[in-house]
Structure prediction request, 108 residues.
Amino acid sequence: MSGVNPVTAWIKSRMETYKGREEWFEDRIAENSINAQKFSDERHGPFKPHNVYQSEMRTRPNFRPNAAISSLAGSEAGDAGSFRAMRYYQGESAKRRDEILTELAKSG
Prediction:
């Protein structure tokens, strides 16, 4: 035997290298800067007002339904943020859930 402790050799083989640690750090910085820019874009975009994430303090908020997708304008699903749209999407998801359960029951 060459006198190398097997535990020490195993630990040494599992240790991360300086280069690997630096690459992980660079990836983490890049990912954080991308996420920060996404947050900035979402906060200052033309489609959202400033401080949109704060709660509405008025007792009667100024709600005007807006079409989320232009092809859905005028339909029940078109009013973004309305109870009608929520009811529509909940109904559609319940239908899809029932279809999936039926398929699972048929297949076994």
User: Anything to note?
Assistant: The first strand starts at residue 66 and ends at 67. Helices lie at 6-14, 18-44, 83-107.
